[in-house]
Design goal:
Blueprint lengths: L4 H5 L6 E2 L19 E9 L2 H10 L4 E5 L6 E5 L6 E7 L11 E10 L3 H13 L5 E4 L3 E7 L5 E7 L6 E3 L2 E2 L8 H8 L12 E8 L3 H11 L3 E4 L5 E5 L7 E4 L7 E2 L6 E9 L2 H13 L5 E2 L5 E4 L5 E6 L11
Parallel strand pairs: 2-5, 6-9, 6-16, 12-15, 17-20
Antiparallel strand pairs: 1-10, 2-17, 3-4, 4-5, 6-12, 7-8, 8-9, 10-11, 13-14, 14-15, 18-19, 19-20
Helix pairs in contact: 3-4
């Protein structure tokens, strides 16, 4: 959704540097720790081989695990980095995503470690004939594609935090045009060789039914700070001062319904916390707010948001790169 800086903030007069602690609206109760990060997303797709051709050939991920007993499952990571970013689960005949207005995934967002890597990926996708949308979000530069099932994907690189700006307590986010030529110059002559080490899951963006209800669940119960709330129809939330680990929007419309078992969809996304105490704090916060959660097989907790989207909170594994995304 292309909403420029001028659309939201006018001439942006009064913008100030977004120094640590100067922006964001924290929950009234428990707050997620600064070291919060995201783990993998689990996706339901219709054809695993078709999806692998895209995720490996276009995005540059690699298969690090394939279930021998169930050939319908594969886990993917960046090159030189073992942390799983995407898990693909085949459901033959699953309907394409994005048809008829569905709640759930808008996109998941893969964060590259630097601008040059993003430029190399953009050049690679252009050479492959892949059509992509783009947006300069003031805090990041992003490109948008869909996988073969219509699931939304963002790939992006963050701008240095010292360049971020705020208006009052609100971090400034918008969707301005990307200077693609400057980005390609930053890429240099090096070829694209796949997602580099240091690539992480940056954020998840969801279609929800109501922003106040989303705030009640994801901020007051889960513990994210509200970061940006003036973007039309959207609310962005994060921890540790990050611009957002989660975006929520109502753009699917008032008649949208949750995705179901027959749809290509997001099955679950993951929040990774620095220690077991933080996970238990989150579990207590959910219980206090009246949201059910179950203990998961990995020692974390599993719950669902008010629209049925699965969420897991767990301790970041050693070496998984836990911590806020910079």
């Amino acid at each position: 959704m292309g909403v420029t800086t001028r659309d939201i903030f006018g001439d942006a007069a009064g913008a100030q540097p977004a120094t640590p602690g100067s922006y964001g609206d924290p929950p009234r109760g428990r707050r997620l720790p600064d070291a919060t990060a995201l783990g993998p997303v689990r996706l339901q797709i219709a054809d695993l081989e078709r999806s692998l051709a895209f995720y490996e050939g276009v995005l540059g991920l690699r298969v690090v695990e394939r279930d021998g007993a169930r050939a319908a499952l594969a886990a993917l990571a960046a090159y030189g980095d073992g942390r799983v970013l995407v898990e693909l689960n085949e459901q033959p005949g699953a309907r394409p995503a994005g048809r008829g207005g569905r709640l759930g995934l808008y996109h998941f967002a893969i964060l590259l470690p630097d601008r040059a890597s993003l430029g190399r990926l953009v050049r690679h996708m252009a050479d492959a004939g892949v059509r992509a949308g783009a947006g300069d979000h003031l805090v990041s530069e992003a490109f948008y594609v869909h996988d073969p099932d219509g699931l939304g994907i963002e790939v992006y690189a963050d701008r240095p935090r010292e360049t971020w700006r705020r208006r009052g307590r609100e971090l400034m986010l918008a969707t301005d045009p990307v200077d693609v030529q400057d980005l390609l110059r930053a890429a240099g002559d090096a070829p694209w060789t796949g997602m580099p080490a240091g690539t992480v899951m940056g954020h998840v963006h969801l279609h929800v039914g109501d922003l106040e209800q989303a705030s009640a669940f994801y901020s007051e119960a889960i513990g994210f700070d509200r970061i940006t709330w003036s973007y039309p129809g959207a609310l962005f939330l994060g921890a540790g001062g990050y611009h957002h680990h989660l975006g929520t929007n109502t753009w699917a419309g008032p008649g949208a319904r949750p995705s179901d078992d027959e749809d290509a969809r997001l099955l679950e996304w993951t929040i990774e916390l620095p220690d077991a105490a933080s996970v238990q704090e989150a579990a207590r916060s959910l219980a206090d707010a009246g949201y059910p959660a179950e203990t998961a097989s990995d020692g974390g907790i599993a719950t669902r948001d008010p629209w049925g989207t699965g969420l897991r909170l767990r301790v970041a594994a050693s070496g998984d790169g836990g911590g806020s995304n910079d």
